[in-house]
Amino acid sequence: MSDDSLILQAFKHKTLNNVIFDYTLKLLSSTFDSIKSIEIKHNELKKTIWLASILSNSDNDIHKRKAQLFTSLLFLNNQDDIEILKACYVLFSRLGNLTATRFLKNLYSNQDENPVELKSEYNFGDFLSYELLFEREKKIISLENNSFLVTDFQKDLWEGLNNISEIAISAPTSSGKSFIIKKYLINEFFNKNEFRALYIVPSRALINQVSEEFKSELTDDVRVKSSVTEENEVFDKEIYILTPERCIKILDIDIKIDFIFIDEVQGIEDALGRGLIFEYVFNEISLKFPSAKFISAGPNITNPNKTFTEIFERDCSTIQSKLSPVFQLKITLKNNQGSKFDVVIQNESGIYQKFVQDFKYNFKNKNKGETVAQLVKYIAPKDSNIVFVHDGYYAQHWAVIYASIIEEDDDLDKEVKELIDFLKEDIHKKYYLIECLKKKIAYHHSTLPDIVRKEIEELYTNEKISTIYCTSTLLEGINLPANNLFTFQPKKKNIPLTKFEFGNLIGRAGRIKSSLYGSIYYIQNNNDSQLASDYYDAEYDKEIEVFSSNAINSLDVHDLNIPTSKIEKGSDIETKKAQQISIFLKHKYLKGEDYALKYLKNKKFTDEEISIAMGYLKDNLNAIDVPPNVLIKNPSIDPLLQNQLYTKIKSDDIREWVLSKTSNFAKFLDPEKIETLPIYDRPFYWQLVNLLGKLDEIFNMFDEGFKKYNQKWLSATSTSLQAKRWLSGAPIGQIIKQNIEYLSGRNNYNKIDPENLEDINRVINDTIRYNSTITTYLLPKYVKVLVDILNEIFTDEQKEEYKLTMSLPTMLELGTKEPLIIQLISSGITRSVAIQIFDLYNKNTTKDFREKNDILNWLSNQRDIKELKPIYNRYLKRIKVLAT
């Protein structure tokens, strides 16, 4: 009998399937009392261990995954049986998952968080001991100050990083790929006198999380940067942690980058949003840094090398795995009547087991928020839970519902109490999050203040809060693993998750730091169009289709002969795709005719279509006057509109396109007086109103804000008012209070009740959402085009005279006009903390001291800043800004 035949028999063996079935039920019996006592015969268990041992030697990840499932269940149901623990150790070793052996605590004579230091006090016999020792030594990564025991996949990745130039990585969310990348970079910084890395993440929230992680582990001689400023000082050792949008600036500076890592590379698929920027930036960094080592990573990607080559035009090696060190129980909950649910468990694709559980609560006529609250309370009231919700409003609303049925926790951690005090003082005393935190519950979505989001992530990771309601921010790589994940029909906004996205989502179920498994609870109604089994039975792998390959199918070549805004298709989605790919192709052509020609040929356009397309591009773009450097820096904006702006600036009085610091700049003047003044002699606010109004005439950016972000009533005056408050350095809580006061004084349908909880929390969320989408994203996007043009046509004297204008995009994005605050934010400190530090720095130091010293050096000599709130001091210590 061949080895392959034996492995296949073992994989399908009835005894193995039955034991996995029984052990799964036994594991869940502490949660569901309808499961009766289960005993497994000793002979069956011995046979199953032998079958799992056969599977552990397979080269097929699916076979290994089943063996690992059994091994984990074997341990979880027999934690005090030394002989079984020894068998688990052998199986984990053969499966290449020695990291899991840290849970076999009863085997060891000592207890240590690092499994490298664990010593078994039991004898395995000479032959097995030699095998285990040999495998163990192979799976240890030794660094200067520490050693780590890793999985087969992690060791392969470590070896690849040290020996291969380009790598495309594909592995499940919980496989530990980011851990290895970070350890590799830390090791490189330690061993080299000069080393620079670029770490590209898909969201600003991930910038914060990754920056904190690096700051907490890197030595002080390595600079961690989360943005690129106009006065960017280059250091021998530095790591830039940037979104693709922020990478555009790094393309324009003279710098050598040695290592480039692109995390969550699947973001390049987004044909309706940021995919254009992703593809453009990834293409350009490959050209800008030809000698850099390039690494891309994403979950469950088929043919990752093909995607890598298409993006970077470089060959690469592939390191991939379908194995995760944790396994997941996939459970469906179907309400059949009143308090009873059908509980359906999937062990592997297409194989289910079912029982009925009475939850002792009548669910009839209850909404989804009430239903999930009662289920979480029954199933996992003390566990770490994520409830995945399709929308930020519902994440907040459902968290409040759950908090209302949970008793207030007397054992609330000091850090949770400090966050509650901060929210009362700095956001609003009636913020919904306060009541949730009192019950160790939180919500996590895009409209949380940065410092609050950071604290929630930290508290949840350290198990100081137990349940968190999340939106699709969880799909962007935010590291928030849970013991349990609950979801109704999983969606992003109102669009069902793809199978690929669902696989990425459920990768959050299972905390390798504290458990070998996680549970997914899919709550399904009888009339649901999305069934749990459709997701559970799916393969989550997919081949990534880059933005342009997806969007090109929506383009008719004749679209290239009309303004982008006039392109119309049968649906909003197809229209957006066609508009985006039209812009993409125009930029390709302006880079060089050969680039556009090569692209069209690669996409299999006919000779006739190529001739028509190239003709339109030539007719419309050859007479363009805007400097090429401006176009390179603004790849997501139609070149024809950029040229329109350039022509207008050149023909107008330049003072209509800048902010002039005249004697009226900081004054408050009556509207009647303002009307009599030329634009350049008006106060700052009215100059900004003029500037944004003129930009909107060309780019129609307020309409974009409505369509893309659902922000209503955008105008030059309303956006300038919010921007003025933001640029003044006002904390977000102060801006929220100003908006509440303003809206409570209105006499129309916008009027709110300043005592009404729902009204107050709507203003809180609207203010933060407005800042994150309009003030810090949409406005800088178009103001940057203006500034890039001015940078090309201004003399050095003019650049100095109008330096406020030249810095306006960065100031809008970061939320301040103060250079020192910009420096603090760019070093990875969140805005609200940076503002407080700046105020105290000015208060506690002399002007002479400030002229001679750097604010970051001053900070690094402080052990504690007494005037700062505890939450700020804790944050600064966590990112190693304060002295330890």
Automatic annotation (TrEMBL):
Pfam families hit by this protein: DEAD, Helicase_C
Keywords per UniProt: ATP-binding, Helicase, Hydrolase, Nucleotide-binding
InterPro entries the UniProt entry points to = DEAD/DEAH_box_helicase_dom (IPR011545), Hel308_SKI2-like (IPR050474), Helicase_ATP-bd (IPR014001), Helicase_C-like (IPR001650), P-loop_NTPase (IPR027417)
Which residue range or ranges hold the Helicase C-terminal domain?
A: 408-563
Is this entry keyworded Membrane?
no
- Superkingdom of origin: Bacteria
ATP-binding recorded as keyword = yes
Can you give the residue ranges of the Helicase ATP-binding domain? Answer: 158-319
Identify this protein by name. DEAD/DEAH box helicase
Species of origin reads Chryseobacterium hagamense
